[in-house]
Write a sequence for this structure.
């Protein structure tokens, strides 16, 4: 297991998650209100492209905040320079330094990718039957209680969307942007701080639990929790975000491919998307 010490702590994690909640709960409604004033067409519900743009904005801002916090904890102040040497002018390179130091500390590295990627894919393939079985179990239990598994909001909009441009945008969001930002937040940032407090194995379970919880859908909680265990273990084992990001992408692409194929064939998808669950950041609703 990765025994690397973490320069940031749970107090930093709490600050970031509070910032995230405020951005979703306060910042996005304010932006939506402003857009309603600006846009000529008045609608009762925001369109998918507006929600996507807001989600991109929120998660990009949160990631930049994480990079700032991590960089601040991992870099030495200018006073650490040896006396007699001129201090470097960092005004033009501050952002680059923040991104570089943050990326290194969070595990955004291609180091060992030839070894890590095949192992990550193999672990996901081994876990996939359990994720699928969990989805079937949830669906059967829900229907036995006379209920119907509910789609995640992003899936509902994805299935109803008819614009090729917006569908492509949503696919980009699900296949690339969502996995990257969530892995930075939950594996790169949250998990090391938890490890320093409760140990490696408890950190894996807690990060997976919180990862599933924030998707705000009880019908996909178990499936995403199992996926989170795989992603957290890969990060702990390899020390980089490469395998978790790739496996996260693979899972989302698998889920959306299943949806697209069934949608094209006209098959009913009432609740069946809950079989796997798509692991994406929550939408500002």
């Amino acid at each position: 297991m990765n025994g690397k010490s973490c320069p940031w702590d749970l107090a930093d994690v709490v600050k970031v998650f509070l910032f995230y909640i405020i951005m979703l709960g306060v910042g996005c409604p304010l932006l939506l209100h402003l857009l309603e004033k600006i846009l000529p067409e008045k609608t009762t519900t925001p369109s998918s492209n507006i929600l996507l743009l807001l989600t991109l904005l929120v998660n990009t801002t949160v990631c930049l905040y994480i990079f700032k916090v991590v960089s601040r904890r991992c870099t030495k102040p200018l006073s650490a320079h040896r006396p007699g040497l001129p201090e470097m002018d960092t005004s033009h390179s501050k952002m680059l330094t923040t991104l570089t130091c943050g990326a290194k500390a969070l595990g955004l590295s291609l180091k060992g990718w030839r070894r890590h990627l095949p192992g990550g894919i193999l672990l996901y393939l081994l876990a996939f039957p359990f994720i699928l079985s969990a989805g079937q179990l949830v669906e059967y239990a829900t229907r036995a209680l006379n209920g119907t598994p509910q789609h995640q909001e992003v899936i509902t909009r994805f299935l109803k969307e008819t614009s090729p441009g917006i569908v492509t945008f949503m696919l980009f969001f699900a296949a690339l942007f969502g996995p990257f930002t969530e892995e930075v937040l939950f594996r790169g940032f949250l998990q090391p701080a938890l490890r320093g407090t409760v140990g490696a194995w408890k950190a894996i379970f807690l990060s997976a639990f919180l990862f599933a919880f924030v998707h705000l859908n009880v019908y996909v909680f178990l499936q995403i929790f199992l996926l989170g265990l795989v992603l957290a273990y890969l990060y702990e084992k390899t020390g980089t975000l490469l395998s978790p990001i790739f496996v996260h992408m693979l899972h989302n692409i698998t889920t959306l491919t299943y949806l697209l194929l069934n949608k094209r064939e006209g098959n009913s998808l009432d609740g069946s998307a809950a079989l796997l669950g798509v692991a994406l950041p929550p939408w500002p609703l």
The chain has one domain: 10-77+92-275.
